[in-house]
Amino acid sequence: MQGRTHLVVGTACALAILRPDTTPLLVAGGASAALGSMISDIDSGSSGAGQDAGKAVAASLIFMILVIYADHYFHMGIYEQLFAGSGSDERLFLFLGFLLLCAVGMLTRHRSLMHSLPCGAALTYCVSRFSPSLTWYFAIGFTSHLVLDLFNRKGLQLFFPFRKRFALGFFRSAGFVNRLLFLAGTAALIMIIWRLAPSVQH
Fold it and tell me: What is the pLDDT of residues 97-141, one digit of tens each?
């Protein structure tokens, strides 16, 4: 699947399943799901998918930083809600570990390390210790990426470093089904946010 399809489908799935009940969680959870749904494709190098993933990852991280920065001035309670339970030293260590794993992933073959269950578990662990409330948003986004790519004709090394690849081979990554999923995912995401927004607590 193309990057934008992963983005809308992964984010919509996470919000639909977890149904955040506060504004901070709706905003940050959506960003975390978007990050999880796109991060696998940073192993695509200079390809379109890799560029899309790199932009989405950078945008998600910048967005999270801006939210925390704004919270410092407007006292919305976002920081306390999202980052309770771990010290600043531990958060820094896990953030660096997250970035290091992504850096290694960028050097690996497409659909290998960054498309594997061990990598997903390691990244999710970093998120869980960094911000427990965002764990499942990231995990669902990441899982949705793997599930969608399994339907393609090119296999995934789900159990990297083992070389066996898994693929259902139903359709191409940039064909009609991809466009259909993108449109359906976009419509679903808009509808989910529209329905959740009035019920969240500020």
Answer: 888 888 888 888 888 999 999 999 999 998 888 888 889 999 999
